[in-house]
Amino acid sequence: MDTLKVTSIKSLAESPALNSVPSTYAFNINPNEEADPNDPEFAIPIVDMSLLTSGSPDQRSKIIHDLRKICQEWGFFIAINHGVPESLMKAMIDACHGFFTLPDKEKQEFKSGNDVLEMFEYGTSFNPATDKVLLWRDFFKVRVHPEFYSLYKPSCFSEISREFSKRSREVALEITRAISESLGLEPNYIYDAMNMDRGLQMLAANYYPPCPQPEHAIGIPHHTDHGLITLLIQNEMNGLQVEHNGKWLTVDGPTNCFFVNLADQMQILTNGKYKSVMHRATLNNKATRISIAIPHGPSVDTIIAPAPELMEKEGEAPKYLAMNYKEYIKLQRSGKIYMKYTFDHIRA
Asked: Residue 74, Cα to own-chain centre: how many angstroms?
């Protein structure tokens, strides 16, 4: 099949002639690199958000203590009891599904340039300018903060995405307050230092249709996120994998949870104390997976560097060079960072 004429992965996956992965999508996953989910070493940490927001002082103190260890060792956890209604999360997934099932011609109306700061973006590739293999996914991204933008199709999307973006932002800010405290800083330190009142927040949805050879293609290759923290929800299909102690672990969690991963600016801000987790999206041959990531970052004009207060307290020298957040995003999306750590290019 001529993949150059493919306008969406959905249309490719639904082709009756498809029984193997086209060579332009070939990406082999080594099963020996995957973790045993029953091994206690790979038991994913769970954070009960209700103990942060309405627990006793002792309960909150314990969660913050636990969070410090989680951020150092994992950079990833599952957030439960976060206050976002399950009905809203399901409605958001359904609205995204409604967009992906539109005719290809209508979805093409949302195509844009390769700029993370665009109001919205639609396509299939992770980064068309640099990808060395085509990805088995369709996606769109919409900027929802500091200005709120929305797709205008399907008709329900704007109202649902506005409420979901607002509620998930509340969760993200509560987490950043707790992370600030876990570092021995004031609760609003990260919010203020990163100018999060003007912070960049995106809503990014991914559509991964069934793949005839899921071990020979990839949804999204391994990468770290460029912001501070990312929240993610999904339908009933698993596919997110995180790297922990040199192994890849497929993430599974209870219904109505957020998967939360730390991102690059958090690692830089903490001078490497807290970990930006490497993760990827794998495929299956049974059913479509939809995931929605909500990355939260500093304002695009913020200069990011290790926090002076932490340097002074720990008696450390900065490990990373200061860099404007917008310039960091551009660096991460450049060809030399493909499936590599951006940190290698900004070490002090």
From this structure: 15
pLDDT over threshold 60, residue 234: yes
Query: Domains of the chain (ranges plus CATH)?
Result: 65-345 (2.60.120.330)
**pLDDT at position 112:** 67
Question: Can you tell me the distance from the alpha carbon of 179 to that of 229, in angstroms, rounded to the nearest whole number?
Answer: 11
* Amino acid sitting at position 96: C
- The pLDDT of residue 266 is 97
CA separation for the pair 335, 127 (Å, rounded): 9
In this structure, the number of other CB atoms found within 10 A of the CB of residue 3 comes to: 12
| Distance between CA atoms of residues 51 and 82, nearest Å | 10
Q: Report the distance separating Cα 310 and Cα 322, nearest Å.
A: 15
**Radius of gyration (C-alpha) of the chain in whole angstroms:** 20
Distance CA 333, CA 335 (A): 7
**Distance between CA atoms of residues 93 and 95, nearest Å:** 5
Q: 251 has which bridge partners?
A: none
**Tell me, what's the pLDDT at 136?**
96
Distances (CA, A) of 44 to 65, 70, 261: 16, 9, 12
- How far is residue 156 CA from its own chain's centroid? 24
